[in-house]
């Protein structure tokens, strides 16, 4: 059992190396691993590309059946509601997961999917396996993401220097700001401009909208007409 969770942890580490949230999963059938996957949400630009779903799809393909009878799933984090429902649909026999996820979990938290009367297959569930290692992976990822806040909080948070952007591009953990980072670096434009051209920045700085004068609105006052031009051009 331990080695199966170890393989899931390996997948999680690899996912982290690809800039994904580090979560990994393996599916075991008759004592051997038939599918393993890491989270690929960013890479595939697919909000459903969670490790569990990718592993379930792979296992179903290999067994040539939509029902994974007798299969056990090992995943490093408590599955979200979407994956918990998929685990039920797939008829997974046992679910082993690592860290508990009070914020996003759907098994022991949130909707408690397997306890719902609308859930027609309940796997045996064992949580907290290698919890500390699975949790530490995610915590180190969160710390990386926290360092990238200057970019993520760009909208209305004042200027983000090119230095912030460049340094995050070389960091190993990236999340939703990956595209912003890439665009900023490759095209050598400011992150604000990048966001603005894609209609993700408001027309004027929020501080200016309600009449307040902050250092931010002063800083950007001279730039605002340029930004507005860009915005209008983008809309045509
Ligand atoms: Zn999920």
How is this structure best described in words?
- This protein is α/β, with parallel strands linked by helices and 236 residues long.
- The chain has twelve helices and five strands.
- The protein has helices at residues 2-17, 41-44, 51-63, 81-89, 131-147, 149-152, 162-170, 178-187, 191-197, 206-209, 215-221, 224-235, and strands at 24-29, 32-38, 71-77, 94-99, 124-126.
- It has a five-stranded mixed sheet with strand order 2-1-3-4-5.
- 35% of the residues are buried.
- Residues 149-187, 212-219 and 221-236 have low confidence and may be disordered.
- Zinc ion (ZN) binds at residues 50, 52, 79-80, 82-83.
List the SSEs and their pairings.
Layout: H1 2-17, E1 24-29, E2 32-38, H2 41-44, H3 51-63, E3 71-77, H4 81-89, E4 94-99, E5 124-126, H5 131-147, H6 149-152, H7 162-170, H8 178-187, H9 191-197, H10 206-209, H11 215-221, H12 224-235
Parallel strand pairs: 3-4, 4-5
Antiparallel strand pairs: 1-2, 1-3
The structure holds zinc ion.
